[in-house]
Amino acid sequence: MQAHWREHHPGRVNVESKPGLPRWRPAKLQTFLRGNNLRYFMVSDRSTPTTAGRRELESQSSLETSMTRSFWQIPHADPRETELDWLLTHHFFETTSRNLSLCATRSQDAWRDKMLQHCATHPFLRYAVLSITASHVAWRCVDVRDVYTYQASRYLQMAMDRMSRLAGVTADNFFAFLNFCRLMSACCLAGLQRTVPDTDTACADREAVVPTWVNVQRQGISLLRPHRQLMMKGLHEPSPRLLNVQMREMPAPPSNVFDARLAALMSLTAATGVGQSGVSHAVLLELRRLWALTSTTDDDSRLTLRDAALLWSVRVPSGYLDAVEAGELAAMLVLAHYCVLLRLAEEECWYTKGHAQALLSTTRKRMEPSLCHLLSWPVKVVASGCIGEPNAYMHDEQVHCGADVTVELRMVVKEADT
Fold first, then answer.
1. Do 233 and 285 reside in the same domain of the chain?
2. Would you state the pLDDT for residue 339?
3. Which end of the chain is more exposed for a tag (fewer CB within 10 A), N or C?
4. Which domain holds residue 353?
5. 417 vs 181, which has greater pLDDT?
6. Could you tell me which PANTHER family the record lists for this protein (predicted)?
């Protein structure tokens, strides 16, 4: 096998090959044929989670491609990498990169290859990739979930430690920095998804209406804002397009199957005067605009449901989040309707699953029991997913709900005045 490697990759037998170039890997267990593809892999003396865990990861990684091809696609990052690092990198190459929904489908391969090239020279990005990939394995494989949940947390801490050593953001490392921020959001969502309900983290998260992952999203955007000029140059496609949308003014909302409901709610929040700053009214308009962009015919502007749901959480002003935490009725109603968009996004992205129900449940608990019936439409849609038949949950309520909500909101205002 080493002779084959010398013939096809001259000058690259040394294990300490330059970063980004394929290298020969000595291995105890090497080759076998499967169909027309030659498959071989490394077995390390280093400790790995479990034999069952390795076996499950290998089967999930779909390593059917020849490793000669994969060596060119997956560059060497660190000669000290473990067998688990290597297997997770392959899983990202074959599976996880296609399930993150971080770029358009047509750009997935280009984004994946560029990510792996940058992982070879930016350890903070590399460990972030390994963390989200371990989370993906944990989500897919119930029998090894605890093992890979631990590994995801370990890699995440390593990524954050390496990130803290970054001297500054430049044009050379901006792609890695941008995608690190985006992966942190995904890692947070995936981590909370696996949180056991009676743990301290889960309890702490339930005490606040605004979930932890929203704050992580917003912190990531705040880190990117000073470097907007690097993003706008378009040199780092396909990643920044969605964040360009986040940083520009939104157009008026086009036709959307859910927009009639949102428009009715918008007119009610404006007419009742709930929320003296009008922040809930403005935030609802933002929700309408982002939601509408999921069904536009303009390819350059169209967003996935996942993109729209997560972008809304970073576009809303801090004043709105304060209103939510204060339990302001209009703010809570808007948040409940946002849960519908978040629920629909779950059909596109594995690490968003379960968050809509959790957020809506928290919202209901913070509202007065006598007002919880105002959330009947979001509750129905979130419970069912409302996939394919959105109007089935809108028609009956659209006739009566407007007047009922108006009366309730006005009564709340009068009680507050007295």
1. no
2. 94
3. C
4. 254-417
5. 181
6. STEROL UPTAKE CONTROL PROTEIN 2
Instruction: Quote the CA–CA distance of 197 and 209 in Å, as a whole number.
Output: 16
Query: Using CA atoms in the order 242, 247, 248, 249, what is the torsion angle rounded to 10 degrees?
Result: 110
**Is residue 158 over pLDDT 50?**
yes
Helices (H) and strands (E) in the chain, counts: 20, 2
Distance between CA 93 and CA 259 in Å, rounded? Answer: 38
Provide CB contacts within 8 A for 286, sequence distance 6+: 250, 312, 315, 316
Q: What is the DSSP string of 94-115?
A: HTGGGSS--S-GGGHHHHHHHH
Cβ 96 vs Cβ 71: under 8 Å: no
Identify whether 249 is part of a domain. no
pLDDT one-digit tens code per residue, 45-73:
433 455 555 555 555 444 333 333 344 34
- Write the CA distances from 299 to 104, 255, 294, 302, 304, integer angstroms: 10, 16, 10, 5, 11
Query: Are 355 and 192 within 8 A, CB to CB?
Result: yes
Nearest-angstrom CA–CA distance, 102 and 124? 18
Identify which of 245, 210, 231 has the alpha carbon closest to the alpha carbon of residue 331.
Answer: 210
Measured CA to CA, the distance from residue 187 to residue 130 in angstroms comes to 10
Which tokens is 82 given?
């473990």
Q: Are residues 240 and 258 in the same domain?
A: no
Number of compact structural domains in the chain: 2
Judged by phi (left if over 0) then psi (alpha if -120 to 50, else beta), residue 276 lies in alpha
* Shared domain check, 392 and 298: yes
DSSP structure string for 18-56:
PTTS------SS-EEEETTEEEE----SS--S-HHHHHH
Pairing outcome for strands 37-40 and 31-34: antiparallel
Above pLDDT 90, what percent of the chain?
21
Same domain, 224 and 263: no
Residue ending a domain, choose from 200, 223, 244:
244
190, part of any domain? yes
Name residue, tokens 């129905």. 380
* Averaged pLDDT, 238-266: 62
